[in-house]
Amino acid sequence: MPTAPPSVRIGVLGASGYTGAELLRLLLRHPAAQIRVLTAERQAGKPMAEIFPHLAPFDLPTPVKIEAVDWSQLDFVFCALPHGTTQEVIARLPHGLKVVDLSADFRLHDTAVYAEWYGHEHQAPELQPQAVYGLTELNRLGVRKARLVANPGCYPTAAMLPLIPLLLDNLIEPGGIIIDAKSGVSGAGRDAKQANLFPEISEGINAYGVGHHRHMPEMEQELRLAAGRPVSLSFTPHLVPMNRGELVTTYVRLADGVTADDLRQALEQKYRNEPFVKVVPAGVAPATRHVRGSNHCHIGVFADRPVRSAIVISAIDNLVKGASGQAIQNMNVMLGLAETTGLEQVALFP
Amino acid sequence: MPTAPPSVRIGVLGASGYTGAELLRLLLRHPAAQIRVLTAERQAGKPMAEIFPHLAPFDLPTPVKIEAVDWSQLDFVFCALPHGTTQEVIARLPHGLKVVDLSADFRLHDTAVYAEWYGHEHQAPELQPQAVYGLTELNRLGVRKARLVANPGCYPTAAMLPLIPLLLDNLIEPGGIIIDAKSGVSGAGRDAKQANLFPEISEGINAYGVGHHRHMPEMEQELRLAAGRPVSLSFTPHLVPMNRGELVTTYVRLADGVTADDLRQALEQKYRNEPFVKVVPAGVAPATRHVRGSNHCHIGVFADRPVRSAIVISAIDNLVKGASGQAIQNMNVMLGLAETTGLEQVALFP
Amino acid sequence: MPTAPPSVRIGVLGASGYTGAELLRLLLRHPAAQIRVLTAERQAGKPMAEIFPHLAPFDLPTPVKIEAVDWSQLDFVFCALPHGTTQEVIARLPHGLKVVDLSADFRLHDTAVYAEWYGHEHQAPELQPQAVYGLTELNRLGVRKARLVANPGCYPTAAMLPLIPLLLDNLIEPGGIIIDAKSGVSGAGRDAKQANLFPEISEGINAYGVGHHRHMPEMEQELRLAAGRPVSLSFTPHLVPMNRGELVTTYVRLADGVTADDLRQALEQKYRNEPFVKVVPAGVAPATRHVRGSNHCHIGVFADRPVRSAIVISAIDNLVKGASGQAIQNMNVMLGLAETTGLEQVALFP
Amino acid sequence: MPTAPPSVRIGVLGASGYTGAELLRLLLRHPAAQIRVLTAERQAGKPMAEIFPHLAPFDLPTPVKIEAVDWSQLDFVFCALPHGTTQEVIARLPHGLKVVDLSADFRLHDTAVYAEWYGHEHQAPELQPQAVYGLTELNRLGVRKARLVANPGCYPTAAMLPLIPLLLDNLIEPGGIIIDAKSGVSGAGRDAKQANLFPEISEGINAYGVGHHRHMPEMEQELRLAAGRPVSLSFTPHLVPMNRGELVTTYVRLADGVTADDLRQALEQKYRNEPFVKVVPAGVAPATRHVRGSNHCHIGVFADRPVRSAIVISAIDNLVKGASGQAIQNMNVMLGLAETTGLEQVALFP
Fold first, then answer.
1. Does A257 have pLDDT greater than 50?
2. Mean pLDDT, to the nearest integer, of A105-121?
3. SS3 label, residue D311
4. Subunits close to A (at least 3 CB pairs below 8 A)
5. pTM of this prediction?
6. Whole-number Å distance between alpha carbons of D274 and D290
């Protein structure tokens, strides 16, 4: 019988949002995790049982404002704050404290690109070079040594788990990659917005952020690294009337002499021993409902009708592998714990 | 005050399916329509109020089997039968009877292509040349003279309303067209199938028919006609947890010197006077919920990040403009009625 | 052929909410309605095509603030303002202007009861006696003569269409009436509230306002009038993950010697000639999906297991018969138009 | 550190249905469970990864037909077969094999009542007296000694967790109990039925089985036992457009001198140390979404408007506490394992 893992004193900054709640759902069953501190802004002081009644059966700290946190009580911090506010908070943390940041603040290495897409100068540019991009399966060594991990966006996670290995192996062309993505609504957060009311979402689908979604530079950066040269990328996200789940349909051009079956075999080979990435058999279309609530990514590959083209479909739960699950996976790696610790939930279907 | 339109004695073959019910919803408010005959197979003899309780407030004929129909009582027939069985039924109709066929049976002009995609020889090849493809806005003259109109598939309708004018005007290239489509579940019909149970659909999304959906040859045929040469087409449909609605996201390559704004202006020009096709303003993303229950198609155009590329998004209600509404629109044209007669419903939102 | 009805110049106060939009959906197809003025507060000046894109195909006035309305341009006003603000607005209207008020402000005749449930004194008590409670089928004569009609709440409409006739005929006891109601989310309005976000509603059900929902005094008032003595009433509403629809399951005690079949027959007799109320056959359970988008109410009656008890189930669309449809029905009666004018939509299923 | 529990070799009969899949989801994370045998009828021989793709990441036996099972390989059997077929299967099992039966076959002790409600004679009446009704919290001692546990129905579980203690303590009257229940669609099973297609369920609600649902005799039996005399019960289930979840709204009459607060305190007292039953604070309405995927039951109590009446609301996940979770809870008790083993999932919200 294995020894119990050492305990880790954890803080979750931004515990009143959906990714915060999802971190708690998973950490409550993580054998090494001690949830010591939660923060919230407007809801500071309110018991978690009121903020998230599904957590009522559990003993959880009442959220405090960030200013009130005694950092010396913590070994590890998850930062689930809104984009933009994060960088100042992290810049002020004790240097020994390890962090996974779920926001976009440290995903872009290039200060100018950050400023272009986010409309303001970065507030902690000195930390940007330190930050490691935490697409765990593809950057495990980097994550292991990191103090600050930038947790990937949900769309980039689903899209790049298949794309990066295919680009690295020169099996697809870096040009003409078209990413048509579909997400559940929890990705839009818990803030009260008319556009996300039930009657505005239910029984309908629409694209949003067409041509200018902020996950695009993140993918351009990482895919360029994999390809060794710039990639040409089209990315269009859609909003689907479901709580969780993200399906990414990617249209790629095959390198000379390569077939769709070659892609599938390469991905199978790459991910054979990965606990969280599964290449589904030929002819099977991944579905988000089969990864709901789990940290899995399902990947399918199909030949397309036009010559030298293929379709790659990947499915994740945007709140788990697309956010909080991958964040904990990164924590496990950073702390030398078994990577699957606390992440072995079976998908909830139906 | 306008004169009442002359009355038309109508038969609906296949009244127990969703497109049959939708024909009835619309025809019950069509001032010229007299619904005289309904047919059903397994449910023949059962009152419509039991088959479709939402129609209970209305006087409707009880469905009979097709063999029992006295065709001399009818002026017009809508054929909403399953693909494959339709062709034999239509071949036996009196030659003077006008027909809109909602199945795929007469959409393909090429007997060999039909046999390739449907797996059997066509049973009424002599009627294939007569059949007119009824994408109304783009073939009004053909429809006007037709005796037999092949009503387009839902995906082809949404995809080709923008694509055909753009190809005709040489504004986009015929190669590299990628159609990523998303549909509600009513398109899958009312037959009891495990895959379409509520728990199998709700809270999830998946692609289906990847690389081999039967709407593909229909689009290849019509787009080739518009382009004057073969087109290269990728088409992937997805199933969305909603009853109605179809969103088609199409990635196109711009012809030399053409911009996305040019596409939008060309489509605005083309559809300026069309009652059912609306090009939405720049920056607005069409949403299926805004055409729910109506015969409208909303079209949006966006510049894409890669050079010389654009994104065209179109939204319809798959049961209305994608099926029964367009069928009645075609009937109106075939009979010389005002084209919008009976089709002026405002979309039902929320 | 009937003569066209005379035209009515209409103002809709509060056009940016769901009941306002639903009024417009229906009025756009009402042959006598001229939509002349729309009002909104925060969204005044914004085109309706932006506020409600499903109305984009239609020419509609841009909303103005209430202060800017020239009342002399109007023959009729629908007031779809929030509860509480309505009474001051209506008090200031020209006395000749006929009004249907969709808020709760004029539903309660008793000033003290109003103050108890709404927490403040009524601002226009002099109008309260004038206001006629507009449950059309049961108060047609009153509505016909009214200048100001208080349109019933959605729950009271569905609950009382069966209950009032049964109490009037002494077929059920006035004690022990239990009303368990289930509503779609559009009833909660279009204001941005966290509790009504898609992820907070989807895939779940809960009761709300248990023991103190504001529709209760309205039902107590009207049922007491029908029974001729106080009634004992329990009312619990629930929130269901759907846009539209309201199902009311009412548990009643039968008067001595009365059976559930007697109830059904009495209701059939009562509503035989009513265009919008349908008593479904024995054994059939009404479903909200069969009245979606229509002004119909379906009523079913069942014997219950305990002696002398029955279950009455009624289904409406909360935005149509439960709000805007009934409001237009009342307008038709007030103006001497055919009662069904503009309300003949067939339910949208699926 | 606790010793690992001894391993139990388990068979799941009926692994192709939703309750079967849910047993597997939970057993895959149960530290003592070895899933040795699965059965299915029509899908025997098909890998579980095809029957339930969400289970694809796990090694599971391929289902066989029941006739092919070597019972000597098993220590414990879950029987998730359709009602009616179960009794013959269980009658043929080796006598030493412990069983939790999730069907209704052994819930009724009275052979005559069974025959009345199920329309045929029971096929294993000799086993009926042996079967223990497994509402775990209320019959723990019985379950501990049982060889055959009849797992309660989902509605009875949610309804009786509050009702039985209240009747035992004479806090409510045995007459006039009205149970208005609302369930997600997974309770209807995975068989292909038109009535359960997505478009037939989505965006609507309806009652079903009004006055004659088969869970009624089960509740009458158990509540009579608790009350010590016959109870008068009304029970009406409704179908809600959601996958999982069951909300039961129960209207009760208070015993003389008792208040709603007394009920709440009695239930808090009763369930204080129960891991899976939580009485929520006054004023809070339980919601199914807060127990989704977990074995918890949330109970709320409210004073009602009529004198001496109260409303009790309970929420469970119909597939977990209402079926497979409670079945495993019963197994744990039968085998002397810690009762929460394998059942500590946090609810999945949103």
1. yes
2. 92
3. strand
4. B, C, D
5. 0.97
6. 17
